[in-house]
Amino acid sequence: MSASASASASAAADATATNATKKTINLLRGWPSPALLPAGLLSGAAQRLLADPAVYVPALQYGPDAGYQPLREGLARWLGRHYGVTPDAGRICITGGASQSVACVLQSFTDPVATRAVWVVAPCYHLMCPILEDAGFAGRLRATPEDEEGMDLDALERKIRDLEEREKDLPPTESFKGDRPGRKLYRHVIYVVATCSNPSGKTMSLRRREGLVRLARKYDALIISDDVYDFLQWPISGALTPERPPEMRVPRLCDIDLAMGFEEGDTEGFGNAISNGSFSKIAGPGVRTGWVEASPAFVKGLSMTGSSRSGGAPSQMSAAILSDLVHSGELEKHIETAVRPGLQRRHRIAMDAIHRYIAPFGALVRESSLLRSHTYGGYFIWLTLDMGIQTKVIAEAALEEENLIIGSGDMFEVHGDEASAKFDSAIRLCFAWEPEEDLVEGIRRLGDLLHRTQQDKGRYEAQASRREQDKDYVNAIK
Ligand SMILES: Cc1ncc(COP(=O)(O)O)c(C=O)c1O
């Protein structure tokens, strides 16, 4: 062993020995910091609601299928003002949050036979894959790469055309679900996070959005855009203002779809793009409430999903509490005075630490969400390393030696189509969860680890391969 390798081995041994005394730092968890939760506001709204039978009786009963009407109206006004579109409560359906909502959308508007594939932006929000798989699409998720501007439309169209070409001589496909009133079955689904994406942090440019809607129309595709970070954008430096510049209000895919008018063949007016919104990141994930904005026909069809027919729209009580805060403007004020400044600060702290501790190892990091803008948003920073070692190995060593949890790029590959878009040199870091000082400490620990890895790559790779062998052995004797 060379002198430098032996020094790094003993550094690693020291690191492992002190791991137990190091506080766990979790830069994988995509939750809001407890400091950003509006507990006082929610408590006030809940007390007002529960003191007035005119409000609490409907709030505690089964709700209408499309959701708590005052919240639909409040959201329509708020979203209309924000995006410069005409408020229309008929375009809003209340949901149980973005995850539950996708499950319902798939129940009503897709079919495991008639819908040929789900095109998923890669890298992807990893927890979306099981939702898509549970709807019958296991093995039919297709990774669609991004470039600097967002989803690569040429690549997507090529892939869709190839699939159509391969399947054109198959016998005509019957649908599994058949015709159901108020619903339609799309031939394709396209899943994206158009603004401040999880995990890449990217915002898709306007021209890409327009191209994507045109493409969806051409191939009878439904675009589901998880727009859960739209309100969480800020200038990279400088003061925050409540008025957002246009680069923080890029039209949603559903707005572009609306502006293009319905396709000739779309006689019922379902449209081809929906916005999947959520209160998780602007109030708290535990409220389990969100909304879909789409054409009125789509919203009606979504509200006819069996589980909403039986139980009414989900999260009725939470929706009523949130409605109070939306109408009074208190939630918006909370976002302006606490959430956006808090995230702006955390992002700056994390980026400073990355430039200091990680950049020296040749890491590439995206500085702004929208290309050529000065804005960032969301919860995540995506780094790409060029060290010739898989970040999965680094993530395992980070846990073992540094008590540090990070997301390695392979986690964000599209299930079942991993080979089409590999991310084994990437790392996702969340700056929303841990306290500010732990963001710096965690990134510093990662820098220390990268230093040791650079010194002695072989040892880390050997350790990783031993771990794999152990796993295989345990699986074999199970
Ligand atoms: C892109 C994206 N979609 C959906 C969700 C989950 O949303 P919800 O809590 O509303 O189910 C998250 C949470 O991290 C997310 O990042």
TrEMBL record:
Aminotransferase class I/classII large domain: which residues? Answer: 60-446
- Top-level taxon in the UniProt lineage: Eukaryota
Gene Ontology MF terms: 2-aminoadipate transaminase activity; pyridoxal phosphate binding
Which InterPro entries is this protein grouped with?
Aminotransferase_I/II_large, PyrdxlP-dep_Trfase, PyrdxlP-dep_Trfase_major, PyrdxlP-dep_Trfase_small
Q: Which Pfam families match?
A: Aminotran_1_2 (PF00155)
The name this protein goes by in its record: Aminotransferase class I/classII large domain-containing protein
Q: Which organism is it from?
A: Hapsidospora chrysogenum (strain ATCC 11550 / CBS 779.69 / DSM 880 / IAM 14645 / JCM 23072 / IMI 49137)
